[in-house]
Amino acid sequence: MLSSILDTSTVPVLEQVVNFTQARHGVLAGNIANIDTPGYKTRDLSPEDFQENLKEAIEYRHRAAESPTYAINAALAGKKPVTGYDGMDQVRESMKHVLFHDNSDVGIEQQVAEIVKNQAQHNLALSLMTSQFRLLRAAITERA
Amino acid sequence: MFSAFDVSTSSLVAQRTRLNAISSNLANMSTTRNERGEPEAYVPRFVVFQTDTEMTTSGGGQGVKVASVEYANVEPKMKHEPGHPDANENGYVAYPNIDMTSEFVDALSATRAYEANIGVIEITKDLGQRTLQILA
C-alpha cells in the first residue's frame, strides 16, 4: 500500500531529477577541477535529453494508469516489458549515455553558472519532495 | 530565471576578456620587438563588445559577446636612444603608445562591471530561493 502511495505521487519523478542533478554536479565539478589541464575537454550531461526522457516516462505512466490496455499496446509496439515497467528505469538507464563533450573550451564563468543552475534545480526538486512527505506525514499523524 | 544567469555570465566572460587585453597592454608597455624578434613597437589592443541576440531573456534582456579584438590606431612613441639595439637610423626607438592612466581606469571599470554582474547573479539566485520558500 505504501509503495502505491509513493509511486503514484511525483516522488519517483523528483527522485530522478535529484539523481540527474547530482550526477551532473559531479561532471561539472570535474570540469572546474581540470580548468588548467592542457588538452582537457569540458564534459556535460545534457539537461535537455534528460528532460525529454523524463517527459516520455511521465506520459507513459499517466497513460498506463488511465487505461490498462495502454501498457500492453506499448509492449506490443515497442519492446517495453508489460509488468514492472514504469518508464523510470529507462530514464535511469539513459543517464549513462548522455555524457558528451562539444569540443569547446568553456571558461570558468560558464561552468560556475551551470553549477548554480544545477544546484537550483536540485534544491527545487528536494523542496518539492519534502513538501510531499510533509503531506504524507500530516495524513499519518492526522495533524499538519 | 535561468536565462538571466546566462546573460550575466556572458558579461562576466566579456569583461574578463577586456581585462586580459588591458593586462596585455600594461605588460607590454615597454616592448620594442614583435614576436619574430624584429624591432617593432607593441600595438595596444582593445576588445569590442556586441549585444548577443542569440541570448535573450523573456523580458527582452540581451547578453553580450566579444565581437573582436582590435588594434589601436596610434603611432608609436619615438624616443631618442641611439645606443639601443632596436634604434632606427636616426637613433630613435619605437615604444608602444600606451597611456597607463587610461589603461588603469579601464581595468577599474572592467573590474567594477564584473563585480556588478556577480551582484546581479546573486540577486537572481536570491529571487529563485525566495520563490522556493513559498513551497517550504
Oligomer: heterodimer
Chain pair forming the biggest interface: A-B, 13 and 16 residues
Largest sheet of chain A, in brief, is: 2 strands, antiparallel
How many DSSP-defined strands of chain B? 4
Q: Can you walk me through this structure?
A:
The complex is a heterodimer of chains A (144) and B (136). Chain A has 144 residues and is mainly α. Chain A is built from 6 helices and 2 strands, in the order H-H-E-H-H-H-E-H. The model of chain A has no long low-confidence stretch (mean pLDDT 78). Chain B has 136 residues and is an alpha+beta fold. In chain B, 46% of the residues lie in helices and 22% in strands. Chain B is built from 2 helices and 4 strands. Chain B has helices at residues 2-27, 100-135, and strands spanning 45-56, 62-71, 77-80, 92-95. In chain B, the strands form 2 sheets. Chain B has a two-stranded antiparallel ribbon with strand order 1-2. In chain B, a hairpin with a 5-residue loop joins strand 1 and strand 2 (62-71). The longest helix of chain B is centred in the C-terminal third of the chain and has 36 residues, at 100-135. The relative contact order of chain B is 0.21. The chains are: A mainly alpha (144), B alpha+beta (136). The interface between A and B is medium-sized, with 13 and 16 residues.
Brief descriptors of the model:
heterodimer, A: 144 residues, mainly alpha, two-stranded antiparallel sheet, 6 helices, 2 strands, B: 136 residues, alpha+beta, two-stranded antiparallel ribbon, 2 helices, elongated
